[in-house]
Write a structure and sequence with these properties.
The complex is a heterodimer.
Chain A lengths: L1 E3 H7 L6 H10 L3 E8 L2 E7 L10 H12 L22 E3 L7 E8 L8 H9 L7 H13 L3 E5 L8 E5 L5 E3 L5 E3 L5 E4 L4 E4 L3 E2 L12 E7 L2 H10 L5 H7 L6 H16 L3 E9 L16 E6 H8 L5 H10 L3 E7 L4 E6 L9 H12 L20 H15 L3 E2 L5 E3 L5 H4 L3 E4 L5 E5 L4 H15 L8 E10 L3 E10 L3 H14 L6 E4 L4 H7 L7 E9 L2 E11 L2 E9 H7 L15 E10 L4 H12 L8 E10 L8 E10 L12 H15 L2 E2 L2
Helix pairs in contact in A: 1-3, 5-8, 6-7, 10-11, 12-15, 12-17, 18-19
Chain B lengths: L2 H21 L7 H13 L4 H8 L8 H29 L25 H15 L3 E2 L5 E2 L1 H4 L18 E3 L7 E2 L5 H9 L4 E10 L11 E11 L4 H16 L5 E8 L2 E10 L39 E10 L1 H6 L8 E8 H9 L6 H4 L2 H4 L3
Parallel strand pairs in B: 1-5
Antiparallel strand pairs in B: 2-4, 3-4, 5-6, 6-10, 7-8, 8-9, 9-10
Helix pairs in contact in B: 1-4, 2-4, 5-10
The chains are: A alpha+beta, B alpha+beta.
Chain lengths: ~675, ~375
């Protein structure tokens, strides 16, 4: 919505300089989006919220300005013109009174279509309109002045010289004034003559019946259309206009007639001609109403002054309340009815947004000024915050991973259609495009996005020798049947063991160390079936179980000749299971004895086997020489180790609860371990 | 071995030792190293002098004290000479001979710590600010029903006011499911579950069909707030948000409440903060605030419009209002008894302002050169 300062001055006695006026309007709810200087003229452009159709007109803006700056306003278009005395034969027929409950037509004969006078042309052009001819310019001018869209038809081109308001018939088409052809469907409302549509009702007129230089007689339309119908048609045809914009937001039912009168008057003045026909059909306010019951009645609202304070926290003096209400066009029907200090109000027809008490309170606050409402933090009862495990576990996890060297990432929740393979589609939630096809999906896992992050950074860091790309994300993933949950994904270009270390550390921090099992047997299928969707190409995949339930996987994936560790977990399971509280355990203060062992073993032997055999070998002597921990620390394959074998180094730590173990005392048990490894796992001691 | 023999060995040892010390010339390169070798040879635990103590057991008992005494004297005398030599070396050593320079200018060892994502940093900063004010977090699904996303929030279907809530619909769900376009559905879900007083914030992800551009992305984050009790007013709303803006943007931050429109609040407001870049001046250089004029018509001598607030001096930061009675009716709250306020903000916008980030797409790109700056 635009208005120039010069136009504004014609409707109210505004004197405030434009800059200050813009600031004032913005602070009181009529937001000035921008100001433009055109010579010595200032043009304001407003951002009018969807609830304020009244402000989509000069008169509406002037009403606000007059009220805010406390000046006089002239909000009624000038004189009225007499309707023709002779009753014309009916020329308007409404077939869909639900979609068009009001239609007023005026027929003006012998008009002289030509250039508009300078004042009209200049004003319209300052607002960005192109001047067409005096008739079209007048309809545009009155639309801007009153907010009521109007349309002028070339009367002689209307077959049968009549207007039929009806829905479109299947396969009907119309070429609109914009020169484009539109295919119509039966739920779209059209203005038709005896044969075919001549306008897209409330949106745009037809090319064939538009007013041109050769037009002699015109039919002036002013109507009230169903806003939902206009909106749907406008969206479907991707065709929006100043008219449809206003009809969608509800025009003033009482303004339909005044705008028609105003335009007719201007036409008679500027294009001459005689008003020879007039017909008004009104199913909205007339008795009988429209079938849909959308009858217009003056709305009445009660306002309790006590309630103003309840909502706003401020008392507005009664005279000020009255000044504001009156200025807004609200009638005060009775003051102080009953003991409630209630005002009975009648809301003007141009304010469809005012329906209940709080709507009126908002208007009072808006005009009185939000600035005048004090800044007062609430006084509230003290209460303990609820425990919030989602928050606690997410925070703890982020902290652990960041401190372990991982960068937090945020990847896109959407996957484009082109990036999804047909086999993935079944496990994905699709989103429909406006045309009804599925054009994108929301992700089923985080790993895919994290691997993209690797690619991006790998290319960038290519030349750097020491590149670590370690990232994680905690975010939601989605699966069909309305399943969504938090997932944790980690990507680590130092590989599987680095990522595994991060996870083991995390399980420790979350108090889940003893409830987690990395299960080699539990491979990809289990991970996918029960917990987390795995992207293609993951090797060395290992299932992760929490209390024997699969919650995710960890594995390696080769990208750009780098082996990347990747893991994804059902984070919701971790949130539920996490135990963040701690219990003190007494500890032994006596010194420990530690021995490092390196053994060469066949490739097929796992660390888990070595650890198990070692523990078994130590069990008999555990009473006297208790083992505290067995720790892996190195694996080596290479020249010094024979083919098909590997060297594994680990340490044994012994500690006795009451005795200081002498260094020599563990020699025997260490030998037992080596003997057992030799016997059971074909190990040889590496020297 | 007799005491006398031992005595003569001791004196040989002594003269040998003293000769060795004399050979060490202060100021030479090898001096310090030779002196250390000397110390090891004579004075260490396994050194020559110590070895003599073992010989004490081989002499007559009455001679033991005497021998002990002799060994001690020897040790003292050699130690003293050694110390003297050491002093001599230390003072005589030229600059060339400072063996090791402790170079404190070498950078410390790198510790590999990761970084928090700037968006989530801001997200948690906002959450924590409200938690400190006594708000609890509430959570809800991202795949929502139209009821919670629109209807229950008084957003009419087919009305221009839902234009700002353009929505993704889940395919093949006959439009029964959508991706929530705001966090407000959780207001309703929470009020359905609990009676007033309500004091919650709703942090979460929301979705709107936008083509990615510097200022918009189809996925972003919001933090929503809701407070309902018997005596909650607009003045209280101003109080809470004023505290919040000062906490997040600095204690000199001014707030401005402007009337606006949201279907689920009445009265509604948009909150602007004084521009954190130009401090509300509207200009970057010295000069008048010239927001009334666009670039082409700026008077001479006027400063450049602040690029962040476009010369306005104010930045829009959140939307808020008093909960609409229709929303309360949906959750069966007594609209006469209870009043409440709600507010919501885009976290990306707050983060972009705080860190001076000019493209929202940087957040989801995850370039390490970006991530490691925070």
């Amino acid at each position: 919505m635009k208005i120039s300062y010069a136009i504004l001055k014609e409707y109210c006695a505004v004197a405030l300089e434009p800059k200050k006026l813009a600031d004032l309007l913005t602070r009181h709810g009529v937001k000035v989006e921008s100001m433009e200087s055109q010579g010595d003229q200032t043009v304001f452009e407003f951002e009018i919220t969807a609830n304020r159709p009244d402000c989509l007109s000069f008169i509406g803006i002037a009403r606000e300005v007059a009220l805010m700056t406390r000046v006089k306003a002239n909000l009624n278009p000038k004189s009225r013109i007499p309707n023709p005395k002779a009753k014309s034969t009916p020329f308007i027929h409404i077939k869909s009174t639900d979609l068009c409950p009001m239609y007023i037509g005026r027929i003006i004969r012998n008009v002289k279509v030509g250039l508009s006078p300078d004042w009209l042309r200049n004003h319209l052009e300052s607002l960005g309109f192109r001047s067409i001819n005096n008739i079209v310019d007048i309809t545009n001018w009155v639309l801007m002045e009153t907010g009521q869209p109007l349309h002028a038809f070339d009367y002689d081109k209307l077959i049968g010289n009549q207007i039929i308001v009806r829905t479109a018939v299947k396969d009907e088409k119309i070429t609109a004034i914009d020169g484009k052809a539109y295919q119509l469907t039966p739920d779209m409302l059209v203005i038709a003559d005896a044969q075919k549509p001549v306008a897209l009702a409330g949106i745009m007129g037809g090319k064939e019946t538009e007013v041109t230089e050769s037009t002699k007689n015109i039919l002036l339309e002013s109507a009230y259309f169903n806003p939902v119908c206009i909106r749907r048609t406008s969206r479907r045809l991707a065709l929006s206009s100043d008219s449809s914009y206003r009809f969608e937001r509800l025009v003033d039912p009482k303004g339909v007639e005044t705008a028609s009168q105003r335009a007719a008057e201007l036409i008679l003045e500027l294009a001459k001609g005689d008003l020879i026909g007039y017909q008004a059909l009104d199913y909205l306010s007339a008795k009988g109403g429209s079938a849909s019951g959308g009858k217009y009645k003056d709305r009445k609202v009660s306002l309790r002054t006590e309630r103003i304070n309840r909502i706003l926290g401020i008392t507005i003096p009664l005279p000020e309340i009255k000044r504001i209400l009156t200025g807004l066009g609200i009638k005060i029907l009775s003051a102080q009815r009953s003991t409630l200090n209630a005002l009975r109000l009648q809301v003007p027809s141009f304010r469809p947004d005012l329906n209940i008490e709080v709507d009126i309170i908002e208007e009072l606050a808006r005009i009185y000024g939000y600035d005048k409402i004090p800044v007062r933090p609430p006084c509230i009862e003290l209460k303990v915050s609820q425990s919030d495990k989602i928050y606690d576990v997410i925070r703890t996890t982020r902290k652990h991973l960041v401190e372990s060297g991982y960068n937090e990432a945020m990847t896109n929740s959407f996957w484009d259609k082109g990036l999804v393979s047909p086999s993935e589609v079944d496990h994905l939630v699709g989103l429909s495009a406006p045309d009804g096809t599925t054009d994108r999906y929301i992700r089923s896992n985080l790993a895919k996005g994290l691997l993209d992050v690797f690619n991006l950074n790998e290319n960038y860091l290519h030349s750097e020798a020491k590149k670590t790309i370690r990232i994680f994300e905690i975010s939601k993933t989605y699966q069909p049947a309305q399943k969504e949950r938090y997932s944790l994904g980690i990507m680590d270009n130092a590989g599987f063991y680095s990522a595994k270390g991060a996870l083991e550390g995390l399980f420790n921090v979350l108090g889940l160390k003893d409830r987690i099992l990395f299960s080699v047997q539990n491979s990809a299928e289990t991970a996918t079936a029960n917990s987390v969707v795995t992207p293609a190409g993951i090797q060395n995949i290992v299932g992760i179980n929490l209390d024997n339930t699969p919650i995710g996987y960890i594995g390696n994936i080769m990208l750009d000749e780098t082996t990347i560790g990747i893991t994804e977990l059902d984070f919701e399971a971790l949130i539920n299971a996490a135990e963040l509280s701690r219990q003190y355990q007494p500890f032994i203060r006596l010194p420990a004895v530690t021995r490092d062992i390196a053994v060469v073993i066949p490739e097929s032997v796992t660390w888990h086997q070595i650890e198990t055999v070692s523990r078994q070998a130590l069990a008999p002597s555990a009473q006297d020489i208790p083992i505290e921990k067995i720790e892996f620390f190195d694996i080596y394959r290479g020249k010094q180790v024979k083919e098909g074998h590997k060297s594994i180094a680990f340490s044994l730590t012994f500690r006795h609860p009451t005795l200081t173990l002498a260094s020599g005392t563990v020699d025997g048990v260490v030998k037992n371990v080596i003997d057992a490894l030799t016997k059971d796992l074909k190990a040889t001691l590496r020297t | 071995m007799s005491l006398q023999e031992i005595e003569s060995e001791l004196s040989q040892l002594k003269s040998g030792a003293l000769d060795k010390l004399a050979e060490i010339k202060a100021g030479t390169k090898e001096a310090l190293e030779s002196l250390r070798q000397f110390e090891h040879k004579y004075l260490s635990r396994s050194g020559l002098i110590r070895q003599f103590t073992q010989k004490i057991s081989g002499v007559e008992p009455h001679e033991k004290p005497k021998l002990g005494q002799l060994i001690n004297q020897l040790k003292e005398s050699v130690t003293e000479s050694f110390n003297r030599k050491m002093e001599e070396l230390k003072t005589a050593v030229g600059p060339k001979e400072i063996a090791v320079l402790f170079d404190a200018t070498i950078p410390g060892e790198k510790k590999h710590r990761g970084r928090y994502h700037p968006l989530y940093r801001t997200f948690f900063q906002i959450i924590d600010t409200f938690k400190r004010l006594g708000f609890d977090c509430a959570y809800g699904p991202e795949i929502e029903t139209p009821y919670y996303n629109f209807e229950a929030l008084n957003v009419p279907a087919d009305h221009p006011s839902c234009d700002s809530f353009d929505t993704f619909y889940v395919a093949e769900s006959s439009r029964n499911l959508l991706l929530r376009s705001h966090t407000s559905p959780v207001q309703v879900r929470t009020m359905e579950k609990i009676k007033p007083p309500v004091r919650i914030i709703v942090p979460g992800k929301v979705f709107r069909p936008d083509t990615p551009a510097p200022s918009r992305f189809p996925m972003f984050h919001q933090v929503e707030g809701l407070m309902v009790d018997t005596d909650i007013t607009f003045a209280n709303l101003k109080g809470v948000l004023d505290i919040f803006c000062k906490e997040i943007f600095g204690k000199d931050t001014q707030t401005r409440f402007r009337p606006s429109f949201f279907p689920f609040t009445e009265p509604s407001a948009e909150v602007d903060i004084s521009c954190i870049f130009c401090h509300g001046k509207g200009t970057t250089d010295s000069g008048e605030n010239c927001y009334a004029d666009r670039e082409q018509s700026r008077p001479a001598g006027c400063g450049t419009n602040c690029p962040v607030c476009r010369g306005e001096g104010w930045i829009e930061i959140l939307g808020c209002g008093m909960v609409h009675p229709n929303v309360f009716k949906r959750v069966k709250y007594d609209t006469e008894k209870y009043t409440g306020f709600a507010f919501g903000m885009g976290v990306e916008r707050v983060a972009m302002l705080k860190y001076g980030i000019n493209d929202i797409r940087l957040f989801t790109e995850n370039h390490l050169s970006f991530l490691t700056q925070f």
